[in-house]
């Protein structure tokens, strides 16, 4: 075989050499001995320019707009690189978290969902139950995810979410205000209210608390935490609604008192998830509950405020204490037109060098879902290590109920926030407000 291959190669070489020699014998007319009969040399025919290869379809990627602007800027750069390397047209859209569900429902109903969505876990879970999402088991096997990250992927119906990052929440306290009043840092919900009263100064546009009731993850998360720390679970392990207890009545009365006693601005009654961020960064609140987006913003633009800030765990209630936070995930829809590009981008996104830098841009807002990154120089810094450790204690959405879409639906309908709003604005009896909350939860959990 080797001799045969060599002879073929030699033969081809001879053919190539002969062709080149015969071509070389046709000398230009100006050098020919019989130049008088020679025809003028013809200019070489110009070759048409090669047309660029057509793009391989269109990839539509919806991302949530983070409070930290660097995140979306960095994602845009990555998407542009992906478009160039894979020769795919990419439409990158950053959507405020409060608008994601509305836009997504409209797109799904029209049969035109994005190819890839990056959103909060509680938003994504709402699309699991009606067979709209693609199974992502194959993607989950390709990466070394932390065990506690995989909880976002799991639902009773199967595996439909690819974890992207953890978002722990903490309590921010104005250290300088505590020192002025000689107060100890608050450790319980009762402490929070007492400190807020002591430092509250509405006449000078400063409030003890920066809480809101306008719906979204922040307000419902706070009320949920209060109810559970007072001793009541919203639902039990079987998904039966268990919210209607005397302890829960006391918890929602306690939350309503923050607004009734003017410890939080009246604008907070309808404020959304950005309300507490903006109030804190304006230096107008003494205590807020939030993710590290506030920390990142202070570190970048308000270092003098950061020096006055104490970062603490969420407060304990009379009976229990819970951490807080959530996760962000990728999901893909069955009816999307370019899920292959979406899968390619997920692989591209999880390049450890890029992924690590993206998390650094978020300054602790996002904890890694992959193993091994906790050992990097960034996460070993004391100020970042505490944020990483906080990702280990996040209670899953709907805990202790089943891991399905019902908890997400309950959050998206703002049942808890609306109930407390009625106590504050409409002055309805707290027990009546709780009765209505129970009915709304049963519509979701028990179809009643």
TrEMBL record:
Record keywords, A-Z: Signal
Region entry Disordered, spans: 22-55
Record-annotated membrane-spanning stretches: none
Basic and acidic residues: bias regions: 46-55
Signal peptide: 1-21
Pfam families reported in the protein's UniProt record: SBP_bac_1 (PF01547)
Source taxon at top rank: Bacteria
Identification of the protein by name: Extracellular solute-binding protein
């Amino acid at each position: 075989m080797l001799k045969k291959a060599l002879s073929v190669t030699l033969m081809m070489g001879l053919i190539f050499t002969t062709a080149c020699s015969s071509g070389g014998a046709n000398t230009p007319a100006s050098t020919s001995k019989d130049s008088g009969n020679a025809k003028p040399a013809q200019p070489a025919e110009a070759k048409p320019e090669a047309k660029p290869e057509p793009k391989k379809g269109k990839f539509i990627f919806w991302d949530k707009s983070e409070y930290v602007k660097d995140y979306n800027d960095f994602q845009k750069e990555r998407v542009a690189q992906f478009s160039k390397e894979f020769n795919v047209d990419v439409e990158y859209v950053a959507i405020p978290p409060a608008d994601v569900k509305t836009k997504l429902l409209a797109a799904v109903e029209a049969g035109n969902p994005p190819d890839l969505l990056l959103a909060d876990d509680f938003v994504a879970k709402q699309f699991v139950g009606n067979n709209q999402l693609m199974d992502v088991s194959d993607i989950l096997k390709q990466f070394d995810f932390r065990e506690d990250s995989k909880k976002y992927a799991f639902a009773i119906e199967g595996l439909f979410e690819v974890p992207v990052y953890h978002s722990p929440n903490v309590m921010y306290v104005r250290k300088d205000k505590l020192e002025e009043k000689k107060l100890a840092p608050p450790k319980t919900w009762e402490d929070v209210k007492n400190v807020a009263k002591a430092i509250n100064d509405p006449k000078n546009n400063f409030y003890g608390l920066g809480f809101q009731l306008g719906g979204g993850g922040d307000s419902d998360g706070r009320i949920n935490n209060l109810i559970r720390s007072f001793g009541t679970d919203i639902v039990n392990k079987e998904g039966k609604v268990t919210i209607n207890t005397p302890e829960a009545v006391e918890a929602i009365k306690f939350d309503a008192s923050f607004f009734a006693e003017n410890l939080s601005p009246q604008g907070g009654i309808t404020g959304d998830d950005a309300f507490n961020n903006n109030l804190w960064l304006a230096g107008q609140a003494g205590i807020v509950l939030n993710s590290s987006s506030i920390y990142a913003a202070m570190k970048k633009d308000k270092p003098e405020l950061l020096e006055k800030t104490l970062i603490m765990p969420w407060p304990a209630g009379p009976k229990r204490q819970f951490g807080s936070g959530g996760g962000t995930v990728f999901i893909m829809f069955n009816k999307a037109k370019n899920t292959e590009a979406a899968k390619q981008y997920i692989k591209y996104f999880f390049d450890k060098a890029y992924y690590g830098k993206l998390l650094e841009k978020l300054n602790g807002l996002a904890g890694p879902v992959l193993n091994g990154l906790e050992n990097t120089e960034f996460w070993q810094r004391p100020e970042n290590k505490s944020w990483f450790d906080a990702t280990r204690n996040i209670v899953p959405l709907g805990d202790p109920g089943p891991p399905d879409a019902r908890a997400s639906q309950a959050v998206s309908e703002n049942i808890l926030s609306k109930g407390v709003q009625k106590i504050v604005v409409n002055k309805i009896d707290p027990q009546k407000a709780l009765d209505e909350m129970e009915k709304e939860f049963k519509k979701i959990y028990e179809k009643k």
